[in-house]
Amino acid sequence: MFSARHLILVTMLIASLGLTGCDGMTDDLLPSGDDKRPDVEAGTIGTQVGQLAPDFSLFDTLGNSRGLYNELSNSTGVVLYFTMWCPICETHMSNLRTEVIPNFPTVKFFLVDYVMGTIEYSRAAQEAYGYTDIETLVDTDQQVFNLYQASMGTTVVIDSAGNIVRMNEDYKDGVKLIETLQALP
Questions:
Q1: C-alpha 163, offset from chain centre
Q2: How far is 174 from 96, CA to CA, in rounded Å?
Q3: What is the distance, to the nearest Å, from the Cα of residue 104 to the centroid of all Cα atoms in its chain?
Q4: Residue 100 lies in a domain
Q5: What phi, psi does 168 have (nearest 5°)?
Q6: Three-state SS for 140?
Q7: How many C-beta neighbours within 10 Å does residue 81 have?
Q8: Is residue 20 one of the residues assigned to a domain?
Q9: Burial of 129 from C-beta contacts in 10 A (0-12 / 13-18 / 19+)
Q10: Mean pLDDT of 30-57
Q11: Within its chain, how far is the Cα of 165 from the centroid?
Q12: Which of 47, 105, 39, 44 has its CA nearest to residue 76?
C-alpha cells in the first residue's frame, strides 16, 4: 500500500514526465506577456488591431438591420462585446452598464449574442437578464463571431474612421477598455 507521501511523489514524477514530453511547450508555463501576433499593414481590411474593420450587418433584437459603418457615421466609435448570457458575461455587462457606458455617450455599445440563434430567443435572453437598455445584435450564424475570431467576453473597439483600436481582448474589469475609449479622437 502506498503512503500519502509515496502517492505525492509518484504524482509529481508523472507530472514532470508529462511536461518533459511537451518538448518546447514549457515556455507556456512562464509566458512573457509579449504580443506575439504578427504586425499588420495599416489601412488594410481585417480584424486585427490597426486594420480597418470589415463592414457587417446584423439584426438587433427588435428586428432592425444594423450595419457597422452606419453606426460609425454618427458616433465616435463602436464597442462590440460578445456575450453568451452566462454568469461571467452578466458580470461584465453589469460593469459595462455602470462603469463604462455612462461615461462615453458618443460611443455606440453593442452586445453581440452569438449563441441564441434567433432574434426571438436573443430578445428573450436580453429581457430575462435585464439588458434591454443596451442594444443587442443577433449573430444567428456566428458570422461576425467567426470574422472577429471572438470568444466569450471578447471586446472590440472600432474608432469613427473604422480602425480597430482594441481587438481580441477578453473583458476583465473595464480599466483597459476605459483607457482605450478615452484615447478615441
A1: 16
A2: 7
A3: 19
A4: yes
A5: 55, 40
A6: coil
A7: 22
A8: no
A9: middle
A10: 80
A11: 13
A12: 105
> Residue 80 is inside which H or E element, if any?
strand 77-83
Q: What is the pLDDT of residue 78?
A: 97
Q: How do beta strands 77-83 and 107-113 pair? A: parallel
Q: What is the DSSP letter of 99?
A: I
Residue 132 has pLDDT above 70, yes or no: yes
Q: Which residue has the higher pLDDT, 21 or 132?
A: 132
Question: Coil, strand, or helix at residue 52?
Answer: strand
Say if 47 falls within a structural domain: no
Q: How far is CA 184 from the centre of its chain?
A: 19
- Indicate which CATH number applies to the domain containing 134: 3.40.30.10
Q: Which of 74, 82, 100 is nearest to 137 (CA)?
A: 82
Residue 126 grid cell: 436580453
Whether the CB-CB separation of 111 and 134 falls below 8 Å is answered with yes
Integer Cα distance of 181 and 151 in angstroms: 21
Distance CA 116, CA 124 (A): 9
For the record, the C-alpha cell of 152 comes out as 466569450
pLDDT at res. 22:
55
The grid coordinates listed for 173 are: 474589469
Q: Are 79 and 111 in contact (CB under 8 A)?
A: no
Number of independent structural domains in the chain: 1
C-alpha cell at 94: 453589469
